């Protein structure tokens, strides 16, 4: 964006998109962004994690929180009637079937079987922190 002269007033990013925002905001260099993304991937691959799933659903975040089983979390509040869920793959599969039967749009996002943005990935943190330091 900088190359073509676009200088935005603000930035919005989710997950690794936040790294792109940090570059656009001049907090990270291009090299730092690439290294952070690389080491995030490395830490995820080196940590034993549950088989996870991420899904988008046409529910508000609060409504989804009230309906979700305990092992599924609202990972992102995308809008008044749209959010992202994250949790164990089998639990997510069962929950999405229930939502779909009730006529709620619910779709799995390709996440490499990782329950991003949930408590189920917190075990990656120590290794990622070590790499980033």
Written description of the protein model:
With 133 residues, the protein is of the alpha+beta class. The protein has two domains: 13-48 and 124-132, no CATH class; 52-122, Malonyl-CoA ACP transacylase, ACP-binding (Alpha-Beta Plaits), CATH 3.30.70.250. 40% of the residues lie in helices and 18% in strands. It is built from five helices and four strands; from the N terminus they run H-H-E-H-E-E-H-E-H. The chain has helices at 17-24, 30-46, 61-67, 89-101, 125-132; strands at residues 52-57, 73-79, 82-88, 106-109. Strands 2-3-1-4 form a four-stranded antiparallel sheet, with helices on one face. Helix 1 packs antiparallel against helix 2 and helix 2 (30-46) packs antiparallel against helix 5 (125-132). The longest helix has 17 residues, at 30-46. The protein is flat, with a radius of gyration of 17 Å. It starts with 16 loop residues before the first helix and ends with a helix. The model has no long low-confidence stretch (mean pLDDT 93). GO terms for molecular function: fatty acid synthase activity. This is Malonyl-CoA:ACP transacylase (MAT) domain-containing protein.
